[in-house]
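Quick one: structure for this chain?
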Amino acid sequence: MVATALLAVSAVASAAAASNAAGGVVAGAGLPAFASPSTVDVGRTLGSRATAAAAGAAGGKTTWRHAEDLSRGVVRRRWVSMEKQQQQNGEAVVGGGRRSLRLMAEATGVAFGGDGRAMDRAAQAESKYREALEEALRAAREHGDFSPQAVAAWDVVDEIEASNNSIAWRPALDQACSVAGEGDDMELCMEYNKDLDRLKEILEPSHAAEEEEQERFTIEEIVPVPVPNLKTKFKPSGVANLDIASDSLGKVTHYTKLIGEKDIVLYDHVRGPGRMPAAKGFLRAGPRASLHFKPEEVRAAVVTCGGLCPGLNSVIHHLVLTLFNIYGAEKVFGIVGGFAGFWDENHPPKEMSVKDVELIQHEGGSILGSARGGFDLDKIIDFINKKKINQLYIIGGDGTHRGAVRIATECMARDMNVAVAGVPKTIDNDVDIIDRSFGFQTSVEAAQHAIESATTEARCAIPNGVGVVKLMGRSSGFIAAMATLASGDVDLCLVPECDIVLDGPRGCLPHIMKRVKEKGYAVVVVAEGAGEEILGETGETDATGHKKFPEIGPFMKTCIEKYFSDQGEVCNVKYIDPSYMIRSVAANSYDQIYCMQLAQNAVHGAMAGYTAFSAGMVNDRTVYLPMEELVANSPRIVNPLGRTWENVLTVTRQPSTLGSRATG
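Got it. Here's what it folds into:
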């Protein structure tokens, strides 16, 4: 009976070695398993641990019967070899071989027996492991492989093997090989040596595994970015916020989830070698359990500043609906004409109701109008005091947010319990930190119509048609780059972040001519802020201090025509400027949902007492961003060394000018 058990252990070792050679490890023995679990389970049900290991080694490429034959063949070969040695050299040699087998069994038992942390503490002793193994083999032989007795017995073996100590087995395995050597059974010793080495590879952590462990990246510290809250200076109302005000039938609707004050969203979630084991986190947006303001006392004002953008009406629509329908606010004022609307008598504010904003989300532009400039801090504060405003919602870009920070700071300095909330808006998608600004995807979609028109014009302009499209993008070329990628028909994309090289090995003009010769036409997309390095600055600024750019579109049209003429070729250039068309359309379905999320969460934040914050999307989660943090690095730009621009180069096949920039 003992010999049978020892043979089974040897078969396990051999099957393990075979498994390791095949790129796997012993399956179901408390060790990592890379074979198909279903394949291993088939082997187990046969009542043979060796078969299970061999099936694991097969990895699904061999049937269970072949795996069974493999394991039994190993046992038979080993035992025949020992019998031959017995006939030739006498009992002593076989005794040595058996002793080495016994010691290997003991070592395996120690390896699988564990050090006190086994699922069954009674399995700590290796003798019990051998006894369980013998009982399992006996039950399988007497009652059948699939019998309940055999299955139960193998379950006991499984419990013992579930605890693995990869250190205690080494001395016993080494001794097993030494005993085989003392008996002059060199062939058997060499064979065992191979098995021992393979078992060591299986059971002992390799250097590769240690290196892999060292390469696991962890975040040891999460640094939440604090958002100013009025409760630090003013006593909150303490009103519980467990229910949405009411549904259309007057029934109370309960919140399905309330956000805690310490719930955060990680900002830089990309990890890798050399990165600090710390991560910045922003407060997760959403309704809080307790309100700073009494809902029935809320008097809010909404203002849109800067240029138009798809989704402005959508944000206004959902701000008003959230204030009235969810919280039951007292009044909501709409400020007409940007910051100047706080004090300009020609454009007085107007009260807004749910009825006033009905269906406006399907319209482009802003029902409040929009304008640049007009910021007068004292007059704005006077309006807030006069109208008893306690929540101010400002929709605008980085310049607008800088003004909002000044308003929030002044309110705190004057002991005014006013929450200032923002919703980032920029057609250029150049506000920092957030994934994207609302309306950006709609603008990229609208730009496709202009590119399609330019493509059609260029294809039909015989000979050598070229379509040039100028898109918005003052200091960043996100619209031009993304519209280029979305189209797939563009041959040249010019953005402010990359220098324009007209002629030479990296020149865009030779590239355009080559593309025209290859397919008969070409399409060029250029951002309005591109080419300043060759056109110079105009020295002019708008009402908000933003500099005005030279006309890059007409310049490129002239350059293309002249280059073809210098080469003795005729060129028909069609110039299209859809700049304002792509920003005045209504938001598409994606941006409609995005605007709703931003507006609702801006109101949730203000009701909880947060101030000088904006609601933005970070890693596809809506968060509260301190305004100062938001504008600190704005405007952001397309990274000329990043994947987005790399994708543009692969689509257009235009030469990269980074070499020129790097050496210049």
